[in-house]
Specification:
about 180 residues; mainly beta; Porin; 8-stranded antiparallel barrel; 2 helices; about 70% strand; elongated
Length: about 180
């Protein structure tokens, strides 16, 4: 029994010795003064590099949206698995794809007296690129989405349309950073 526990401990140490944790996130702000629309998003993130190809992580987000009197506050969790499929020889640039889920809940206020619960969900893939400036610091960009994204009626009223397919528009572009330790 002691040998089995020792073998399990050695295996666990060898797996975690080569792995690295990372923290980071992204921030976004959009303003359309013509239609009186504003959106602000903050999304911190934590993750674990299992090896040079695979990572797993979790994003935690908050989005505030105002659309001509309609206000929405949504809190999200976004678990994902990342597959890195290309690295330059000097490891300066990496291309990857995240496969994960988007789950969110919040409130939509139509006026000061009337509000509904906002629920959003999604499942899909997000391609990205990482510019590794040092061994510990990276700039990251995600562009596009392939999968399903939807929500309840309150979420759709607040500007979260139900969609299935791919979207590689500038609306699905975000920038962030990672610090690896």
């Amino acid at each position: 029994m002691k040998k089995l526990l020792l073998a399990a401990a050695i295996m666990l140490v060898s797996v975690t010795a080569s792995a690295q944790f990372y923290v980071g996130g992204s921030v976004g702000l959009n303003r359309n003064s013509t239609d009186n629309e504003t959106e602000f998003t903050i999304s911190p993130e934590v993750g674990y590099n299992i090896n040079s190809t695979w990572s797993a992580g979790m994003g935690f987000g908050y989005t505030y949206r105002y659309d001509a009197g309609l206000k929405s506050n949504v809190f999200q969790v976004n678990p994902y698995v990342r597959y890195t499929y290309f690295r330059t020889g000097n490891n300066l640039v990496s291309l990857f794809v995240d496969g994960g889920a988007d789950l969110g809940i919040g409130k939509v206020s139509y006026d000061d007296d009337h509000s509904k619960t906002d629920v959003i969900f999604g499942l899909g893939f997000k391609p990205g690129v990482s510019l590794n400036l040092t061994d510990n610091f990276s700039l990251v960009a995600h562009f596009g989405f392939l999968g399903y994204y939807g929500g309840n009626h309150a979420a759709q009223d607040a500007g979260n349309p139900e969609r299935f397919g791919f979207d590689f528009s500038s609306a699905n572009l975000n920038f962030g950073f990672y610090y690896t330790f």
